[in-house]
Design a protein that fits this description.
heterodimer, A: about 240 residues, alpha+beta, 5 strands, B: two-stranded parallel sheet, two-stranded parallel sheet, 4 strands, about 45% helix, globular
Chain lengths: ~240, ~200
Protein backbone atom coordinates (compact mmCIF):
# COMPACT_ATOMS: atom_id res chain seq x y z
CA UNK A 1 0.00 0.00 0.00
CA UNK A 2 1.37 3.35 -0.92
CA UNK A 3 0.03 5.83 1.65
CA UNK A 4 -1.46 9.03 0.35
CA UNK A 5 1.48 11.47 0.55
CA UNK A 6 -0.62 14.33 1.84
CA UNK A 7 -2.00 12.15 4.60
CA UNK A 8 1.41 10.76 5.47
CA UNK A 9 2.70 14.31 5.70
CA UNK A 10 0.01 15.17 8.22
CA UNK A 11 1.40 12.39 10.35
CA UNK A 12 5.00 13.36 9.77
CA UNK A 13 7.05 11.26 12.12
CA UNK A 14 10.15 12.43 13.91
CA UNK A 15 12.86 10.67 15.88
CA UNK A 16 13.44 13.75 17.99
CA UNK A 17 14.38 17.41 17.78
CA UNK A 18 17.27 16.60 15.44
CA UNK A 19 15.06 14.90 12.86
CA UNK A 20 14.21 18.03 10.89
CA UNK A 21 14.64 16.93 7.27
CA UNK A 22 11.68 18.42 5.40
CA UNK A 23 10.33 20.34 8.40
CA UNK A 24 8.58 23.56 7.41
CA UNK A 25 8.75 27.13 8.67
CA UNK A 26 12.51 27.47 8.79
CA UNK A 27 13.77 30.66 7.21
CA UNK A 28 16.63 31.53 4.91
CA UNK A 29 19.91 29.64 5.17
CA UNK A 30 22.61 31.74 6.92
CA UNK A 31 24.94 31.66 3.92
CA UNK A 32 28.51 32.84 4.40
CA UNK A 33 30.83 32.37 1.50
CA UNK A 34 34.14 32.63 3.30
CA UNK A 35 35.95 29.86 5.08
CA UNK A 36 34.47 29.24 8.51
CA UNK A 37 36.37 30.80 11.33
CA UNK A 38 36.50 29.03 14.61
CA UNK A 39 36.77 30.30 18.07
CA UNK A 40 39.57 28.57 19.88
CA UNK A 41 37.28 26.88 22.38
CA UNK A 42 35.17 25.33 19.60
CA UNK A 43 38.19 23.52 18.21
CA UNK A 44 38.92 22.34 21.75
CA UNK A 45 35.40 20.85 21.95
CA UNK A 46 36.25 18.68 18.95
CA UNK A 47 39.62 17.73 20.43
CA UNK A 48 37.97 16.71 23.73
CA UNK A 49 35.36 14.70 21.91
CA UNK A 50 38.04 12.93 19.96
CA UNK A 51 40.18 12.26 23.03
CA UNK A 52 37.21 10.94 24.99
CA UNK A 53 36.20 8.64 22.12
CA UNK A 54 39.72 7.28 21.66
CA UNK A 55 39.90 6.57 25.41
CA UNK A 56 36.58 4.72 25.15
CA UNK A 57 34.96 7.02 27.73
CA UNK A 58 31.66 6.82 25.82
CA UNK A 59 30.37 5.41 22.54
CA UNK A 60 29.39 7.41 19.47
CA UNK A 61 25.80 6.15 19.73
CA UNK A 62 25.48 7.45 23.29
CA UNK A 63 27.23 10.67 22.31
CA UNK A 64 24.65 11.31 19.60
CA UNK A 65 21.72 10.06 21.71
CA UNK A 66 22.38 12.67 24.42
CA UNK A 67 22.09 15.42 21.81
CA UNK A 68 18.96 13.90 20.28
CA UNK A 69 17.26 13.64 23.69
CA UNK A 70 17.64 17.39 24.32
CA UNK A 71 14.47 19.40 24.76
CA UNK A 72 13.51 20.67 21.28
CA UNK A 73 13.80 24.30 22.36
CA UNK A 74 17.26 23.70 23.82
CA UNK A 75 18.33 21.75 20.74
CA UNK A 76 17.33 24.46 18.30
CA UNK A 77 18.58 27.39 20.39
CA UNK A 78 21.99 25.84 21.11
CA UNK A 79 24.81 26.20 18.64
CA UNK A 80 26.45 23.12 17.15
CA UNK A 81 29.40 23.34 19.53
CA UNK A 82 27.16 23.98 22.53
CA UNK A 83 25.30 20.76 21.73
CA UNK A 84 28.56 18.85 21.41
CA UNK A 85 30.02 19.98 24.72
CA UNK A 86 26.65 19.40 26.42
CA UNK A 87 26.75 15.76 25.25
CA UNK A 88 30.41 15.31 26.19
CA UNK A 89 29.65 16.55 29.71
CA UNK A 90 26.43 14.52 30.01
CA UNK A 91 28.12 11.28 28.97
CA UNK A 92 31.25 11.79 31.08
CA UNK A 93 29.13 12.45 34.18
CA UNK A 94 26.74 9.57 33.40
CA UNK A 95 29.67 7.19 33.05
CA UNK A 96 31.31 8.37 36.26
CA UNK A 97 34.41 9.76 34.55
CA UNK A 98 33.77 13.24 36.01
CA UNK A 99 31.36 14.57 38.61
CA UNK A 100 29.22 17.69 38.38
CA UNK A 101 30.95 19.00 41.52
CA UNK A 102 34.38 18.63 39.97
CA UNK A 103 33.22 20.55 36.89
CA UNK A 104 31.72 23.35 39.00
CA UNK A 105 34.93 23.61 41.03
CA UNK A 106 37.01 24.03 37.88
CA UNK A 107 34.54 26.57 36.49
CA UNK A 108 34.99 28.67 39.66
CA UNK A 109 38.74 28.37 39.42
CA UNK A 110 38.85 29.33 35.72
CA UNK A 111 36.45 32.25 36.31
CA UNK A 112 38.78 33.61 38.99
CA UNK A 113 41.88 33.28 36.86
CA UNK A 114 41.11 32.66 33.19
CA UNK A 115 44.75 32.72 32.15
CA UNK A 116 46.08 30.20 34.65
CA UNK A 117 47.61 27.22 32.86
CA UNK A 118 45.64 23.95 32.80
CA UNK A 119 47.07 20.80 34.38
CA UNK A 120 49.73 18.93 32.43
CA UNK A 121 48.13 15.90 30.81
CA UNK A 122 49.90 12.62 31.27
CA UNK A 123 48.43 10.59 28.40
CA UNK A 124 51.57 9.86 26.41
CA UNK A 125 49.84 7.67 23.84
CA UNK A 126 47.05 9.92 22.66
CA UNK A 127 49.10 12.14 20.34
CA UNK A 128 50.61 9.03 18.76
CA UNK A 129 47.14 7.56 18.21
CA UNK A 130 45.96 10.82 16.62
CA UNK A 131 48.98 10.79 14.31
CA UNK A 132 47.65 7.49 12.98
CA UNK A 133 43.90 8.03 13.03
CA UNK A 134 43.70 11.53 11.55
CA UNK A 135 45.52 10.65 8.31
CA UNK A 136 44.33 7.03 8.07
CA UNK A 137 40.80 7.17 9.45
CA UNK A 138 39.12 4.81 11.87
CA UNK A 139 39.27 1.23 10.63
CA UNK A 140 35.98 0.18 12.25
CA UNK A 141 34.08 2.90 10.38
CA UNK A 142 35.02 1.40 7.01
CA UNK A 143 32.60 -0.82 5.12
CA UNK A 144 33.07 -4.54 5.70
CA UNK A 145 32.22 -7.19 3.13
CA UNK A 146 31.39 -10.74 4.16
CA UNK A 147 30.33 -13.39 1.62
CA UNK A 148 28.62 -15.23 4.49
CA UNK A 149 26.34 -12.25 5.08
CA UNK A 150 24.88 -11.25 1.72
CA UNK A 151 22.70 -8.14 1.55
CA UNK A 152 18.97 -8.71 1.88
CA UNK A 153 18.09 -6.17 -0.82
CA UNK A 154 19.39 -5.95 -4.38
CA UNK A 155 20.31 -2.83 -6.29
CA UNK A 156 17.22 -1.79 -8.28
CA UNK A 157 14.81 -3.35 -5.78
CA UNK A 158 11.81 -1.36 -4.59
CA UNK A 159 11.76 -0.86 -0.82
CA UNK A 160 9.78 1.05 1.79
CA UNK A 161 11.07 2.93 4.82
CA UNK A 162 9.60 1.06 7.79
CA UNK A 163 7.04 2.71 10.02
CA UNK A 164 8.69 2.65 13.42
CA UNK A 165 6.47 2.19 16.44
CA UNK A 166 7.66 2.14 20.03
CA UNK A 167 9.86 4.73 21.60
CA UNK A 168 13.00 2.58 21.63
CA UNK A 169 14.05 4.33 18.46
CA UNK A 170 13.25 7.70 19.90
CA UNK A 171 15.32 7.07 23.00
CA UNK A 172 18.29 5.61 21.13
CA UNK A 173 20.46 7.01 18.35
CA UNK A 174 18.79 5.99 15.09
CA UNK A 175 19.32 7.10 11.52
CA UNK A 176 15.88 6.51 10.06
CA UNK A 177 14.41 9.97 9.58
CA UNK A 178 10.67 10.46 9.69
CA UNK A 179 10.51 11.78 6.16
CA UNK A 180 11.31 8.35 4.64
CA UNK A 181 9.06 6.32 6.93
CA UNK A 182 6.14 4.77 4.99
CA UNK A 183 7.68 6.08 1.75
CA UNK A 184 8.76 3.97 -1.22
CA UNK A 185 12.05 4.21 -3.04
CA UNK A 186 14.57 2.15 -4.99
CA UNK A 187 17.87 0.71 -3.76
CA UNK A 188 20.54 2.55 -5.73
CA UNK A 189 23.80 1.40 -4.13
CA UNK A 190 24.72 -1.37 -1.72
CA UNK A 191 27.54 -0.18 0.52
CA UNK A 192 28.41 -3.22 2.64
CA UNK A 193 28.30 -3.80 6.38
CA UNK A 194 28.70 -1.00 8.93
CA UNK A 195 28.42 -0.54 12.69
CA UNK A 196 24.86 0.33 13.58
CA UNK A 197 22.93 1.63 16.55
CA UNK A 198 19.87 -0.47 17.37
CA UNK A 199 17.07 0.83 19.59
CA UNK A 200 17.64 0.30 23.29
CA UNK A 201 14.78 -2.17 23.64
CA UNK A 202 16.18 -4.57 21.04
CA UNK A 203 19.20 -6.83 21.53
CA UNK A 204 22.24 -5.23 19.92
CA UNK A 205 23.67 -8.50 18.53
CA UNK A 206 26.91 -7.78 16.74
CA UNK A 207 25.53 -4.33 15.97
CA UNK A 208 26.47 -4.24 12.33
CA UNK A 209 24.17 -4.04 9.32
CA UNK A 210 24.16 -3.66 5.59
CA UNK A 211 23.66 -0.05 4.51
CA UNK A 212 22.13 1.05 1.22
CA UNK A 213 21.70 4.32 -0.64
CA UNK A 214 17.97 4.48 -1.43
CA UNK A 215 16.59 6.84 -4.05
CA UNK A 216 13.24 8.56 -3.47
CA UNK A 217 11.36 10.70 -5.96
CA UNK A 218 10.53 14.02 -4.27
CA UNK A 219 6.90 13.61 -5.38
CA UNK A 220 6.71 10.50 -3.17
CA UNK A 221 8.16 12.34 -0.16
CA UNK A 222 6.39 15.67 -0.01
CA UNK A 223 2.97 16.96 -1.05
CA UNK A 224 4.89 19.83 -2.62
CA UNK A 225 7.58 17.59 -4.14
CA UNK A 226 9.25 19.34 -7.07
CA UNK A 227 9.60 17.52 -10.36
CA UNK A 228 13.09 16.46 -11.46
CA UNK A 229 14.08 16.26 -7.81
CA UNK A 230 15.24 13.21 -5.89
CA UNK A 231 16.55 12.45 -2.44
CA UNK A 232 19.10 9.68 -2.04
CA UNK A 233 19.62 8.66 1.58
CA UNK A 234 21.73 6.00 3.28
CA UNK A 235 19.59 3.57 5.30
CA UNK A 236 20.38 0.47 7.35
CA UNK A 237 18.79 -2.81 6.34
CA UNK A 238 16.54 -3.00 9.43
CA UNK A 239 14.94 0.32 8.47
CA UNK A 240 13.70 -1.14 5.17
CA UNK A 241 11.11 -3.63 4.00
CA UNK A 242 10.53 -5.03 0.51
CA UNK A 243 7.65 -3.63 -1.55
CA UNK A 244 5.70 -6.57 -2.94
CA UNK B 1 38.18 42.34 39.13
CA UNK B 2 41.32 41.50 37.18
CA UNK B 3 42.12 43.01 33.82
CA UNK B 4 42.02 39.50 32.42
CA UNK B 5 38.31 39.47 33.21
CA UNK B 6 37.76 42.68 31.35
CA UNK B 7 39.27 41.58 28.07
CA UNK B 8 38.24 37.93 28.21
CA UNK B 9 34.58 37.26 28.66
CA UNK B 10 33.94 33.56 28.34
CA UNK B 11 30.58 32.09 27.45
CA UNK B 12 29.11 29.35 29.63
CA UNK B 13 29.91 26.78 26.95
CA UNK B 14 33.50 27.96 26.71
CA UNK B 15 33.90 27.84 30.49
CA UNK B 16 32.48 24.34 30.70
CA UNK B 17 34.68 23.19 27.83
CA UNK B 18 37.78 24.48 29.61
CA UNK B 19 36.72 22.89 32.91
CA UNK B 20 36.16 19.50 31.27
CA UNK B 21 39.47 19.78 29.43
CA UNK B 22 41.23 20.54 32.73
CA UNK B 23 39.66 17.49 34.38
CA UNK B 24 40.45 15.12 31.51
CA UNK B 25 44.04 16.36 31.55
CA UNK B 26 44.23 16.00 35.33
CA UNK B 27 42.85 12.44 35.20
CA UNK B 28 45.29 11.33 32.53
CA UNK B 29 42.92 10.95 29.58
CA UNK B 30 44.37 13.78 27.51
CA UNK B 31 47.62 15.51 26.84
CA UNK B 32 48.36 19.06 25.79
CA UNK B 33 50.40 17.63 22.94
CA UNK B 34 47.39 15.71 21.59
CA UNK B 35 45.09 18.73 21.82
CA UNK B 36 47.65 20.93 20.06
CA UNK B 37 48.10 18.31 17.35
CA UNK B 38 44.35 18.09 16.76
CA UNK B 39 43.90 21.86 16.60
CA UNK B 40 46.90 22.35 14.32
CA UNK B 41 45.72 19.61 11.95
CA UNK B 42 42.32 21.19 11.34
CA UNK B 43 43.54 24.78 11.39
CA UNK B 44 46.38 24.31 8.95
CA UNK B 45 46.57 20.91 7.27
CA UNK B 46 43.08 19.70 6.45
CA UNK B 47 40.76 21.87 4.38
CA UNK B 48 38.95 22.23 1.04
CA UNK B 49 42.27 22.31 -0.83
CA UNK B 50 42.36 18.51 -0.43
CA UNK B 51 39.04 18.10 -2.21
CA UNK B 52 39.97 20.70 -4.83
CA UNK B 53 43.08 18.71 -5.76
CA UNK B 54 40.93 15.61 -6.24
CA UNK B 55 38.46 17.48 -8.46
CA UNK B 56 41.16 19.14 -10.57
CA UNK B 57 42.82 15.76 -11.17
CA UNK B 58 39.44 14.33 -12.23
CA UNK B 59 39.03 17.21 -14.71
CA UNK B 60 42.38 16.60 -16.42
CA UNK B 61 42.61 12.80 -16.14
CA UNK B 62 39.56 10.86 -17.41
CA UNK B 63 40.97 7.56 -16.16
CA UNK B 64 41.35 8.99 -12.66
CA UNK B 65 37.81 10.34 -12.88
CA UNK B 66 36.60 6.87 -13.78
CA UNK B 67 38.32 5.40 -10.73
CA UNK B 68 37.02 8.24 -8.55
CA UNK B 69 33.41 7.61 -9.55
CA UNK B 70 33.90 3.85 -9.17
CA UNK B 71 35.64 3.85 -5.76
CA UNK B 72 36.43 7.29 -4.41
CA UNK B 73 37.96 6.05 -1.15
CA UNK B 74 40.70 4.29 -3.10
CA UNK B 75 41.06 6.99 -5.76
CA UNK B 76 41.63 9.87 -3.32
CA UNK B 77 44.25 7.76 -1.53
CA UNK B 78 46.29 7.86 -4.78
CA UNK B 79 46.65 11.60 -4.12
CA UNK B 80 47.44 11.11 -0.44
CA UNK B 81 43.99 12.41 0.57
CA UNK B 82 41.78 10.67 3.11
CA UNK B 83 41.64 9.85 6.78
CA UNK B 84 39.29 10.63 9.61
CA UNK B 85 35.88 11.66 8.34
CA UNK B 86 36.52 10.12 4.92
CA UNK B 87 36.71 6.41 5.68
CA UNK B 88 34.10 5.71 2.98
CA UNK B 89 33.85 8.28 0.19
CA UNK B 90 31.46 8.36 -2.75
CA UNK B 91 31.99 10.93 -5.52
CA UNK B 92 28.97 12.10 -7.52
CA UNK B 93 29.45 14.01 -10.76
CA UNK B 94 27.57 17.11 -11.86
CA UNK B 95 26.65 17.14 -15.56
CA UNK B 96 24.49 19.39 -17.74
CA UNK B 97 21.63 16.99 -16.95
CA UNK B 98 22.16 16.37 -13.23
CA UNK B 99 23.13 18.50 -10.23
CA UNK B 100 24.12 16.92 -6.90
CA UNK B 101 23.82 18.48 -3.44
CA UNK B 102 24.94 17.03 -0.09
CA UNK B 103 23.29 17.42 3.31
CA UNK B 104 23.11 15.59 6.64
CA UNK B 105 19.57 16.19 7.86
CA UNK B 106 20.01 14.38 11.20
CA UNK B 107 23.29 15.97 12.31
CA UNK B 108 26.14 17.49 10.30
CA UNK B 109 28.15 14.64 8.77
CA UNK B 110 30.69 16.09 6.37
CA UNK B 111 33.83 14.77 4.62
CA UNK B 112 36.34 16.39 6.98
CA UNK B 113 39.43 14.90 5.33
CA UNK B 114 38.38 16.35 1.95
CA UNK B 115 36.78 19.67 2.90
CA UNK B 116 37.89 20.47 6.45
CA UNK B 117 35.36 21.31 9.14
CA UNK B 118 31.85 22.18 7.98
CA UNK B 119 30.73 25.81 7.60
CA UNK B 120 28.01 27.17 9.86
CA UNK B 121 25.32 27.09 7.18
CA UNK B 122 25.87 23.35 6.61
CA UNK B 123 25.07 22.73 10.29
CA UNK B 124 22.13 25.14 10.40
CA UNK B 125 18.57 23.84 10.95
CA UNK B 126 17.49 25.96 7.97
CA UNK B 127 19.75 24.13 5.51
CA UNK B 128 19.14 20.68 7.00
CA UNK B 129 15.34 21.08 7.03
CA UNK B 130 14.84 22.78 3.70
CA UNK B 131 17.34 21.51 1.15
CA UNK B 132 15.68 18.08 0.90
CA UNK B 133 12.26 19.62 0.34
CA UNK B 134 12.86 22.77 -1.68
CA UNK B 135 16.38 22.47 -3.09
CA UNK B 136 15.90 25.01 -5.87
CA UNK B 137 14.84 27.73 -3.44
CA UNK B 138 17.75 26.93 -1.11
CA UNK B 139 20.26 26.89 -3.97
CA UNK B 140 18.85 30.24 -5.04
CA UNK B 141 19.86 31.64 -1.66
CA UNK B 142 23.43 30.57 -2.50
CA UNK B 143 23.13 32.32 -5.87
CA UNK B 144 22.91 29.04 -7.79
CA UNK B 145 20.14 28.80 -10.38
CA UNK B 146 19.33 25.27 -11.57
CA UNK B 147 17.18 24.91 -14.67
CA UNK B 148 13.82 23.23 -13.90
CA UNK B 149 14.61 20.52 -16.45
CA UNK B 150 17.89 19.55 -14.72
CA UNK B 151 17.56 16.62 -12.31
CA UNK B 152 18.59 17.48 -8.77
CA UNK B 153 19.83 14.68 -6.51
CA UNK B 154 20.10 15.53 -2.83
CA UNK B 155 22.34 13.11 -0.95
CA UNK B 156 21.37 12.81 2.73
CA UNK B 157 24.53 11.39 4.30
CA UNK B 158 22.97 9.53 7.20
CA UNK B 159 25.58 6.75 7.41
CA UNK B 160 29.38 6.51 7.56
CA UNK B 161 29.54 7.25 3.82
CA UNK B 162 30.67 10.77 2.94
CA UNK B 163 29.86 12.41 -0.38
CA UNK B 164 32.00 14.59 -2.61
CA UNK B 165 30.39 16.49 -5.47
CA UNK B 166 32.56 16.77 -8.59
CA UNK B 167 31.48 20.10 -10.08
CA UNK B 168 31.44 20.72 -13.83
CA UNK B 169 34.68 22.06 -15.28
CA UNK B 170 34.09 25.68 -16.27
CA UNK B 171 33.99 26.62 -19.92
CA UNK B 172 37.12 28.43 -21.02
CA UNK B 173 39.41 26.48 -18.67
CA UNK B 174 40.64 24.11 -21.40
CA UNK B 175 44.17 25.54 -21.48
CA UNK B 176 44.64 25.83 -17.74
CA UNK B 177 47.12 23.66 -15.84
CA UNK B 178 46.02 21.31 -13.10
CA UNK B 179 47.37 23.65 -10.42
CA UNK B 180 45.48 26.59 -11.96
CA UNK B 181 42.31 24.48 -12.04
CA UNK B 182 42.62 23.75 -8.32
CA UNK B 183 42.04 27.47 -7.72
CA UNK B 184 38.65 27.27 -9.45
CA UNK B 185 37.25 24.58 -7.15
CA UNK B 186 35.41 26.19 -4.26
CA UNK B 187 34.34 24.47 -1.08
CA UNK B 188 30.67 25.07 -1.85
CA UNK B 189 31.04 23.60 -5.36
CA UNK B 190 32.09 20.31 -3.74
CA UNK B 191 28.95 20.30 -1.55
CA UNK B 192 26.73 21.29 -4.48
CA UNK B 193 25.68 24.68 -3.14
CA UNK B 194 28.04 26.40 -5.55
CA UNK B 195 29.62 25.97 -8.95
CA UNK B 196 33.29 26.17 -9.88
CA UNK B 197 34.76 29.64 -10.48
CA UNK B 198 35.16 30.58 -14.10
Amino acid sequence: MNPDPAHAQLERRSLGPHDIGGAEHFGRVPVEKDQPTYEDWQMHVLALLFGAAVNGLFGFGDFRAAIEKMHPLSYLSASYYERLIYSVETNLVANGVLTADEIEAWIRSISEDPDAPLPAGSNEELAEILRTILPQGMADLRAAHDPERPPLFAVGQRVRGKHIDGDGYVRAHARHPGYVQDKEGVVERSYGIFPTFPPYDLPSGDATEHVYAVRFDAADLWPTGESHTNVVIDLSESYLEPVQ
Amino acid sequence: MSTAHEHRSMSQAELRTKAIEALLLEKGYLSGEAIDLFVKTYEHDVGPLNGAQVVARAWVDPEFKGRLLENATEAIAELGVGGFGAENVVAVENTPERHNVVVCTLCSCYPWALLGLPPTWYKSPEYRARVVREPRAVLGEFGVDIDPEVEIDIWDSSSEVRYLVVPMRPEGSEDMSESELVELVTRDSMVGTGVARS
